[in-house]
Design brief:
By secondary structure, this protein is of the alpha/beta class. The chain is 34% helix and 17% strand.
């Protein structure tokens, strides 16, 4: 160790820190003082989820900022001081501490804060964090227009912004606000920030039920560099989705849930108006007009690489197959709640999935275990399959034997069969035979599996290193450790 110069060790530890996994640096930092010092300088991400960090005026958090001088990514979780009632915790203290830390922060995320930071705290961030490009506000209670407008005023160089609410009933009221609100985030607030954050590239408005087509129109009109929009809510319509497709030439990724338009809407999708030729990822939960949208994308010649459809309202097998046929560039196909799918339809779709590396089929029609064998046989590029099936139809032993004798797919490395109540030891064994290079397997919440069945899988698939199993399999922990398998239980 002493023969290598410190620069070499620093390069090695920097490589370990490159994936933002804090644990990668824990063992080296305990080896010696030199590694401790070097790993401290190499660390780029810090997640402040430990409540001890917020005690005594965030004293421990302040020491962490001093210990890791090269941090670029910070995540703050709900501050809590055991010496004070939860409602009295001053969440502005850690934020202002960040602003005065001298750190070169590029990404900052706030999670589940009990109240929104004061506008003054955002002003202090803006005065010092000139390289901050990404800001995520996740489940911050009472976050409103007044706060996000301050963010836009003080951090005009932001490129990625998340204003996200999950399971927030108070944010789900359909009431509309024509002007800026000091209570909630509304269309008026989004319109203002769209006019100020002109370099914005990605935005996530998931859960903002008071934001409608107005927000999408403002973002597409003003943020010309916009590459990604994510909005899982039920307040936008096909009109808003269409406007985005017509006015966002740099859009790469669109994830949206949309509802039916107002009665008098005369909007219809027209391929000639679509300008999003760079669109590569499309994730839709549509309540109507899905076939017309898919046909429009086909006609526009957009080479999708990732497609996710979350329900089958106004979606037909012909619409789905037409799109898949027109997109040989597709790499990822995720379908959920598509009730018309069955084993035969999967067989028909496989002819278009020659380049697909990931398939996820969840809560889809009457699929059975046969769908897995069809995918494994017909789709040679597949490296990941996630599948559940509702059909409990049985097959005679000769039928299954013919299938697993015939099929060997050496590309499949990840297999997720969790939550399948019809998965037995015998079925799992026959599946394992078809994918000898399997390294990750998830069979959590599969109630029919036994300890003997899992042991047999480990004998067939010698490359398994990641395994998720039902919690009663903990008795095999010594076996998993001897194979150096990382295990999760549920």
């Amino acid at each position: 160790m002493e023969k290598l110069p410190e620069e070499c060790w620093e390069w090695i530890l920097n490589r370990l820190a490159a994936n933002d996994n804090d644990r990668e640096l824990q063992c080296p930092s305990l080896t010696c003082k030199q590694f401790l010092s070097t790993s401290n300088r190499s660390r780029r991400k810090f997640s402040a989820f430990n409540k001890e960090l917020y005690h005594n005026g965030c004293e421990a958090l302040y020491r962490a900022f001093k210990r890791f001088p090269n941090l670029e990514k910070l995540e703050l979780y709900r501050p809590y001081d055991r010496a004070k009632p939860i409602g009295e915790v001053d969440i502005d203290i850690p934020i202002e501490m960040i602003a005065s830390s001298g750190l070169n922060i590029r990404s900052l995320a706030f999670y589940t804060l009990p109240k929104a930071p004061s506008p003054n705290s955002f002003r202090k961030l803006g005065s010092t964090m000139r390289n901050l490009k990404r800001l995520i506000c996740y489940d911050i209670k009472s976050l409103a227009d007044v706060h996000i407008v301050t963010i836009a005023d003080e951090l005009q160089w932001l490129e990625e912004l998340g204003i996200i609410f999950r399971n927030n009933g108070s944010n789900a009221c359909p009431k509309r606000y024509p002007q800026l609100s000091d209570l909630v985030v509304t269309d008026a607030g989004i319109e203002v920030i769209s006019s100020k954050l002109l370099g914005l590239r990605k935005i996530d408005l998931t859960g903002n039920h008071r934001c409608s087509d107005r927000s999408l129109i403002a973002l597409s009109s003003n943020c010309v560099h916009l590459e990604g929009i994510q909005y899982i809510g039920n307040s936008v319509t096909k009109d808003g989705i269409g406007f985005v497709l017509y006015h966002s030439p740099n859009l790469i990724s669109l994830q949206a849930e949309y509802r039916l338009a107002v009665r008098n809407s005369s909007f219809s999708f027209e391929a000639s108006k679509i300008c999003t030729n760079n669109l590569r990822e499309l994730d839709l939960c549509g309540h109507g007009f899905q076939d017309p949208l898919l046909y429009c994308i086909v006609e526009a010649g957009i080479p999708l690489e990732k497609l996710t459809l979350r329900n089958d309202f106004d979606l037909s097998f012909n619409g789905l197959s037409t799109l898949l046929c027109a997109c040989p560039s597709l790499k990822y196909l995720h379908l959920r709640g598509i009730r018309f799918l069955d084993d035969d339809s999967i067989r028909n779709l496989c002819r278009y999935l020659g380049n697909v590396v990931s398939v996820k089929l969840l809560r889809c029609g009457t699929l059975s275990i046969v769908a897995y064998f069809i995918l494994a046989k017909e789709c040679h590029a597949l490296s990941e399959i996630k599948l559940d099936w509702s059909s409990s139809r049985s097959f005679d032993a000769d039928y299954l034997l013919d299938m697993d004798l015939e099929i060997r797919n050496y590309s499949i490395g990840t297999l997720d069969l969790s939550c399948n109540q019809h998965l037995t030891d015998e079925l799992l064994r026959r599946i394992a035979v078809t994918c000898p290079n399997l390294h990750t397997l998830d069979v959590r919440l599969c109630g029919l599996l036994t300890i003997e069945g899992i042991l047999e899988i480990l004998n067939h698939c010698l490359l398994i290193k990641h395994l998720m199993v039902p919690k009663h399999m903990k008795v095999l922990s010594e076996t998993f450790e001897s194979r150096q398998i990382k295990v999760g239980y549920l």
